[in-house]
User: Fold these one by one.
Assistant:
Number 1:
Amino acid sequence: MNNPQLDKNGRLKHLLSIEGLPKDILTQILDTAESFAGVSEREVKKVPLLRGRTVCNLFFENSTRTRTTFEIAAKRLSADVVSLHIGTSSQSKGETMLDTVNNLVAMHADIFVVRHAQSGAAHFIARHVAPHVHVINAGDGRHSHPTQGLLDVFTIRRYKPDMHNLRVAIVGDILHSRVARSEIHALTTLGVPEVRVIAPKTLLPEYVERLGVHVYHDMRQGLKDVDVVMMLRLQNERMNGALLPSAQEYFKCYGLTPDKLALARPDAIVMHPGPMNRGIEIDSAVADGTQSVILPQVTYGIAVRMAVMSMLAGSGE
Amino acid sequence: MKIHIRNPRLIDPRNGIDTQCDLFIAAGRVVGIGNPPVAFHANQTIDADGLIACPGLVDISARLREPGFEYKATLESELKAAVAGGVTSLACPPDTDPVLDEPGLVEMLKYRAKQLNLAHVYPLGALTRRLEGKQLTEMNQLMEAGCVGFSQANAPLTDTQVLRHALQYAATFGLTVWLRPEDAWLARGGVAHDGEVAARLGLPGIPSSAETIALATILTLVEDTGARVHLCRLSTRDGVEMVRQAKARRLPVSCDVAAHQLHLTEHDIGYFETHCHLKPPLRTQRDKEALRTGVADGTVDAVCSDHTPVDDDAKLVPFAESEAGATGLEFLLSLTLKWAQESGIALPAALARVTSEPARLLQIDAGHLSVGAVADICLFDPEHYWKVDPQALLSQGKNTPFLGLELPGKVRWTLVAGQIAHRA
């Protein structure tokens, strides 16, 4: 099976999922992001790499944060940016997704940033767009959110440069989480020797261990001696029902509190993809504490997205 | 019209015949095997050197999409596809629009099919009105209109009291109830097997227990009511085992699998291939092997196409939003031959699963070639491999997971009631 993300020369053509990306491409993205991290700290925060290109943010599902960081990243690369929230326009008029996309291709968009509620939506668009168009998956259903996975490993690499000597725990709703899947693939591809997932059985997919992770149901055991704690957001609709009895019990068993964090290594860092539910998956004392790198994650997110867009634009020539 | 089929390898599984001999057809029936009847003068001679002649295939599940879904397929397009696939008799499920829950609709469908003069069509009536799982249909009248069994198609029947009553009522008239075992709650929202691939791709899963729990319910009610039940589209290893045990207990049950299930697994979904969005979902290699064993040892009575033509637009969407199903009529023979080759099954035994056995399940006079039998015949070249090209398919549904593959067995001639319905 051809890898739909790479062109015939093995260069990045689309970014659809971390799974299937070779380690050297992952590393290349992170290294490129490293060089862009400096741009954001300059007074003039722009480079002309994408001048004359059009980046189209296609959000079939709402997300303020991801859309904004993609917009900022594209603008810092001097691209023209169009952001469409499709939920409120053509789809509600009955236009198919493919028609929407083809209309935008006809308007000469170069890069599509796609967010969609269905797993596989970005793969689907990538398969059917004109060959010169690049697709970046900004989150598809439960499947993948590759730029989030990348910015997470970028953040880890900044604080813990020796990836080959790390214990990482991902805590929360793994079953429904595209972020968790992306993090797992990114970490295992980069050679992190021990990735743990911590969740109740109702929030874990079948055969999750085949993704190369160790499964824990007891958070205290799972956090023992880890270097990185990656918390996941618990969606409101999952809090009361057949998957979980209540947000309160969830916090009791799987919320990250200072005393649970104390079981991790003393220099462990705490991450969260946002937006946080304080008091449900994470205690404010931890979220705002000295071990939290949650805000730096957001900052690095821009550099990582700049890196991805610049690499895609480069592969088109 | 009198036809002389010269020198085919005749395989008639029901009569245990596998021999090189001529066939003679007159007035729509087989009138001679080996030797012609006296004073037989053929109007046409078919040179069948190198071809196999077997009874026309009997497909126990093919959606024809009429009435109501003509944009997906029409009776004419699908019956042409049937004969192109060597299928001369087929049963169609009741999930049309309107649903086949009234005798008038069934009569109309049978009449329209007869006018086309292609494959014979045997409708399955709806078990409950509008397939809603609440009120029984007029099964007795539907039977008189031509229904050969009663089914919920893919619609759930969650109310076990209604199910029990439906089985009791059907048993009153000796009717067979066709049920696809799937627990509606466990299958809710699912689009793929709840396994490794669904975990990786983030697709909502349907666990194997959705099948086994439903089977346990159905088998218990069969024991309770004595109704005859045909279990449709088994997909799991444990499901096959449950049916094996039920048959050992002499429960009046039979079952089938879809031909594509003998060849595909969850891994064929690859990168969200919507043509592999099927109902029931493709499961694991272990399940596939168990289905193959089940067909070989007779636990699984029949192999069907589960023909479901879907329009292109319904597959050109993200996986979970796509419509489930694969076109199948033109694949049934080839997929059965491929399974037989790969599993080392003798041709007569393999062909029985798509001819005599399904005919027995439908209780129709078809699927055999004795003297006097209706001359529904499939003549195919077992050595010819054909490459799957959607545009070359006669079915209006081009939705196949076998795109680009080379499959064994090319149908050269199809005769329906002694008339040439297809030649290639």
Number 2:
Amino acid sequence: MSIKLNLAAGLLLTALGVSAASAQTLVYCSEGSPEGFDPALYTAGTTFDASSHPIYDHLTEFKVGTTEVIPGLAESWDVSEDGKTITFKLRQGVKFHANDLFTPTRDFNADDVIFSFDRQGNSENPYNQVSGGTWEYYSGMSMPDLVESIEKVDDYTVVFHLTRPEAPFIANMAMDFASIVSKEYADAMLEAGTPEMLNQKPIGTGPFALQAYQKDAVIRYLRHDGYWGDKAKVQSLIFAITPDASVRYQKVQAGECHVMAYPNPADVQAMKDAEDIVVMEQEGLNVGYLAYNTKVAPYDNPKVRKALNMAIDKQAIIDVVFQGSGQIAKNPLPPTMWSYNEAVQDDAHDPEAAKAMLAEEGIDGLDMKIWAMPVQRPYNPNARRMAELMQEDLSKVGVNVEIVSYEWGEYLDRSKAEDRDGAVLLGWTGDNGDPDNFLAVLLGCDGVGASNRAQWCHKPFDDLIQQAKVLPTQAERAPLYEQAQVIFKEQAPWATIAHSVVYMTMRPEVEGYVVHPLGGHIFNQVGLSQ
Amino acid sequence: MLNYILSRLLTFVPTFIGVTIISFGFIRVLPGDPIVVMAGERGLSAERYEQLSAQFGFDRPIYVQFWDYLSGVIQGDLGNSFVTKRPVWDEFFALFPATLELSICAMIFALALGLPAGVIAAVNRGKLFDRALMSTALVGYSMPIFWWALLLIIVFSGNLGWTPVSGRIDLLYYFPDPSGFMLYDSIFSGQTGAFRSALRHLVLPTVVLGTIPLAVIARQTRSAMLEVLGEDYIRTARAKGLSAGRINGIHALRNALIPVITVIGLSVGTLLAGAILTETIFSWPGIGKWMVDSIFRRDYPVVQGGLLLIAVMVMIVNLTVDMLYGIINPKIRKR
């Protein structure tokens, strides 16, 4: 048969059922390819979904659906009096996966833990330069300054010596970069001259083992039957890589996938109305903001900043820019974060009062620049449109706004400058579910000239977050963060704009899916009804 | 003929050097620093920046970087992707079969329908069929690919359920060591139904990608045929009493094919450009999407290596087209 005839035959063939899989196979329509399978090398959520969550375990874990930290490969831990020595007791009898290159001869132990971190922090480690390792997250979380040494006490006890007390450290150990890899596998691959296999054919201890990956097409996992914890509910897990959101939805409708992430906001209402589609939603662990440059007049005056905030109609932004898939932000922390201060009152949208306040401060006919990001982010799906809405709002109080933008790399770089002209639209997505990860990174004095785009160094605020960082328990830290949010609101270094709302779309036969506030898509305990 | 091919091959050399320089320069002319883009909102310290800059070799003078790239290219090493850390060469050849398979199918589809349509339209010039066909071709040519693809998916996959929504084969089928050509893999896998599944997955992407070339080929065939049909030798053939089929099919079409083949050669560029959108919508794991993603991420090795390889492919196609001219028209190869 000629190819032409075959094509014609293909056109004529009508379909049988399109369902791709049995009840033992869960198909997730993911939005893109992972960069690789060694989470420590990367920073993208898409990569972590495909690597850190199914394949690996961590010393501590985030309980799925919360930011609470629970034991993982470490059964327990002990923090010394001065907060600088942390002792982890490791779980025994934990099995690694096997693949066509490697069969483990021993269980997980302290050597694996030490190797997993040493390769990231020690430039002498043979794996430090493998795969062009830049270990962005490890250095991004200040681990090189923080970790003085890691000591093996016995096969199942590891001690981390820190240079300073740091309460979020336990949560950091649950992060994706802290995935525990097999030292035995690493050694074997080094000897075989193929160390990059650690990244391409991963071996972990997690509930699923990688079976095969075809770039931009499909990732296949099989259940790890030797898993130490609750075993996966399905025999195999498939990621069908589907970059276009409309196509993902079509695939869920056609039964080609069970679950999809990131629907088009415009489709969400239709999904909610459809009978055979389930939509779950939750606020994302993120915040979108407009950061004034508090070092440049007149934005060095909190009253001016407050007045500008009052001029902005946030509800209009939620309706137009987020098309409903967002929520007004009043605090710099997202509402799913512990210590979120519910009592803080947002600035009312009141152009008249704003105008009067500006007049009081002697401001008449202000020219201002607003920087609009050139990229889409969950916390800001359309910065240009957002800036235009602000431009219109501010014109009503006599502020003349010019919108500027740069290529993304330039934008990130130039917006750091302490003498920057204009207010910047930007945002942040949380890493470890710790308030410090928002308040210290984005608003602390150390971040001025870098991640603190407001260039805002306010001693009473900074003292609170520095103090909270070294206290041992959440109960002790939370009141300080709550107080810090009150100061933030009074001082108004930002206009807090929005938190995104995250949607997950799935078929009704999917059981046990939980939306995770830290943003990962986790299928370890997801099953399918018959 | 051999001299002709050799002379064509010689023109490869300057073109290749030009492409190497352009592919190296193009991505570096764009604003945006790959290290800053990589760090994202998190940002990084000045020391860390220096360190990474040295690791990627950006701290060296640009001509040294170019020399490194060029000597790599000559030795067949295109470097590693900044993002995935894998060799560009491996990534390209893992993805290229998918693009090639789809492009070939789209071209066959365009030729199989476009050539006869053009000939029939020319023979029936000015009649209803001609007008209907040419208006349809204009619509096909102007159709936004994105919209056309979604429309087909909604109708044929969503409403009618005749074709799968996206992908290359049903997820039930799994080939441990794929060649990358799904039709080939599915035949030799011995798994029943695999080939049929692969074909069904090809239908919509083929139609979408083939639509613009189909319209161009139909219009080009028609106008080339009209020109030839007015020639003296056609009148002579008619006067000799040859059948219409013989005149149109052999005397006219063969001579009308030269401009058509030119268009086919040029369509390779169109196919690759169309592949970017088609591949994105149909989740087709080819090089189109790979290149676009790399440009956004300022992944220098992938962009420059990918551009170079694509340029070489286009050069090979053009050479093939030139050789076809020679076969169809002996006058050309003697020049």
